[in-house]
Amino acid sequence: IKKAACMFKQKLMLSESYKGAQQLNSDVVLIKSAEHNAIMAQDYGLKEICSAQIDMHVVEGTHRTFLKEPHTLQIIERVLKKRP
């Protein structure tokens, strides 16, 4: 468990310092769980790396359970129908 925790910490530190070469110029849909312990921006910092629209949806449940919520499927279906 200690090794896994150390690796997770390293991933977090790397992701915090990562700077992409350019911004993503594409609309982004963020579906996130209502129950989380993350100490981050509401949009997980996407506005800093995306120059297009960010469509954010909050769904009941945890990171592990929110995909089981019917509302999540409705959001995904709506997003896919908008695509060309």
Number of helices: 2
Shape call: flat
SSE string, helices as H and strands as E: HEEH
Summarize the main sheet. 2 strands, parallel
Structure class:
alpha+beta
Residue stretches low in confidence (pLDDT < 50, at least 5 long) are: none
**Total E-strand runs:** 2
* Proportion of residues in β-strands: 5-15%
Radius of gyration: 15 Å
Report the end-to-end length measured between terminal Cα atoms. Answer: 45 Å
Strand order of the largest sheet: 1-2
Determine the fraction of residues in helical runs and give it as a percent range: 25-40%
Mean pLDDT comes to: 85
Number of domains: 1
Description of the molecule:
This is CG3524. It comes from Drosophila birchii. InterPro entries: AB_hydrolase_fold. The protein has 84 residues and is an alpha+beta fold. The protein has one domain (21-82). Helix content is 35%, strand content 14%. The chain contains two helices and two strands. Strands 1-2 form a two-stranded parallel ribbon. The longest helix has 16 residues, at 2-17. The mean pLDDT is 85.
Layout of strands and helices, then pairs:
Blueprint: H1 2-17, E1 28-33, E2 54-59, H2 70-82
Parallel strand pairs: 1-2
Search tags:
single chain; 84 residues; alpha+beta; two-stranded parallel sheet; 2 helices; 35% helix
Short description:
The protein is α+β, with helices and mostly antiparallel strands and 84 residues long.
